[in-house]
Amino acid sequence: MSTDVSAVDVTAPVSGGESRRPRHWGRFLLPTYSWLVIAYLVFPIAVMVIYSFNRVTSGLQLVSFTWNGFTWQWYRQWSNIPGLTSAFWLSLRLAIVSTVIATALGTLLAIALVRYRGKRFRGKAGFEQVLFLNIAAPEIVMGASLLGLFVTFNVARGFFTLVLAHVMFSIAYVTVTVRARLSGFDVALEEASYDLGANPLATFRLVTLPLIMPGVIAGALMAFALSIDDFVTSNFVSGSSVPFPVWVYGASRVGTPPQVFVFGTVIFTVGIFFALMSLLVSRKKT
Amino acid sequence: MSSPRRHGAWSRGLAPYLLSLPAGLWLLLLFVVPLLIMLSITLKTCSPASGACVMTWQWGELPHVVNQYRGQFVTSLIFAFVATLIDLVISFPIAYWIAFYGGRRKNFFLIMLLVPFFVSFIIRTLVWEFILSDNGVVLTFLRGNHLVPSSFHVLGTGLAVVAGLAYNYLPFTALPLYVALERIDRRVLNAANDLYATRRVTFMRVILPLAIPGIFAAFLLTFIPAFGDYVNQEILGGTSNTMIGTVIQNLFLIDSDYAGGASLSAVLLVISLLGIWLYARLLGSRTIEEYL
């Protein structure tokens, strides 16, 4: 990037004069700007964390944005709101179940898409288009059309329909993530396994799966994050079992209890902890 | 590929289909079929009294509904467009900085870009509701310094909705831009330098043209979800400036007007697909998927 311009022919003085200023871009202006953007991204999260410690003075236990002093009260009473707690456990169960299913189905599909093409896998192009459409379509369209399906076929809405919906919108993300890691996969390793007498199942379990595991884990994390945070689709298909985002949205139209911020803060802390840990681990390895 | 002698040619030939069958069935029954059902409803004519729909193979509801909610479509287009432009302007420099100057801390900065995703979408939007409220941090500060008149409100206006959309979808813009800039071959930049291009010329004539597909991808990946969003409008926009997502949600969940809701959803889908189709036509074989 920063070739020494002074070594260049003196007949190009413009280029020499210009080279100093852009360096400031890289050294000072751009970093300052970037940190400001990061501050902007972190700002509402900081507000959430701070106000999860705010005392409430009025009779109604709702978040208010006058600072009344520090308290651990909402962390001690984190489970005091029955609807919120059960919505959270429901979201957790839902995310685990749909992540397991979506990761399994999405990984198998990714293997099929990477490994077979042309005459060996007719319909591959169709699959690619469906996957792409699934990612690109506005979520409200998917949620609304699913509701239409469940109403048409008289399917009672609840945990079951939530799982159906969450797996549906997670598969494509898992497949895309796994496929990206799978593209550099050396087929000769599987051939070696067959030559040593392993059957296809053993080969998959002992050779293929360990090699693509980083991709599978990344895909599973993606599916989990999508599921636990989903509001739009869940709002259409949840019926009487209310997941965490749907409950919070409903409650907020009346007033937000401080425990919502406690849950938000805890989820954020756990998530960012794992993200930074994985960063440290991957840095040590390289 | 691997030895077909050991396993029957029959099972080998079936392998791709067996591997893709479960996911394929799931997507067929819960994604493709519902979309087709939804599109078929737009071809039905429904009686407003009973709500019963009969297949008439006419675009019965469609022109009527689109006309009725034209204003909300226009509002959604404008809000989503403005929010996407803001996101492009905000995130291009930071994506550029991370891609070219990030060094060993690249991944750390990428996590910082994704940091909003570690908080639930609804909670993020609720916090913005509090921040932008009349007694919130931003307005108190601006009023205190006499930068805005005391009657100035943000909450309940289009400004708040655009601010919420811009915040919530920023990572959708920044990441594709980063991928596009990161992918630029550094040797091309060295070549530009060797040919006496100034930094500005290098940026305008080398970096920017190479980043164009990424900029378009970032635009679509932000614009499409923002266009169909209704959470920001409902929480931050109050009862005014209704977006099309709100209308669709109300038609389905409150009015049980499935024909109307399905027709609007179909239009929303077609507009999104039109954008993707244009992208493919204008920018050739490179697919948006590369930027996910």
**Helix count, DSSP H or I runs of 4 or more residues of chain B:** 12
Largest sheet of chain B: 2 strands, antiparallel
Question: Biggest sheet of chain B, strands in spatial order?
Answer: 1-2
Unreliable residue stretches of chain B: 1-5
CATH class label of the largest domain in chain A = Mainly Alpha
Describe this structure in words.
The complex is a heterodimer of chains A (286) and B (292). Chain A has helices at 13-18, 20-51, 73-76, 82-115, 124-136, 139-152, 159-182, 187-195, 200-228, 232-237, 244-252, 259-285. Chain A has 286 residues and is mainly α. Chain A is globular and about 75 Å long. By secondary structure, chain B is mainly α. Chain B has a single domain (61-291), classed as Orthogonal Bundle (MetI-like fold). In chain B, 71% of the residues lie in helices and 2% in strands. In chain B, strands 1-2 form a two-stranded antiparallel ribbon. In chain B, a hairpin with a 6-residue loop joins β1 (44-46) and β2 (53-55). Chain B is globular, with a radius of gyration of 24 Å. Chain B starts with 8 loop residues before the first helix and ends in a 9-residue tail after the last helix. The model of chain B is unreliable at 1-5 (pLDDT under 50). Classes of the chains: A mainly alpha (286), B mainly alpha (292).
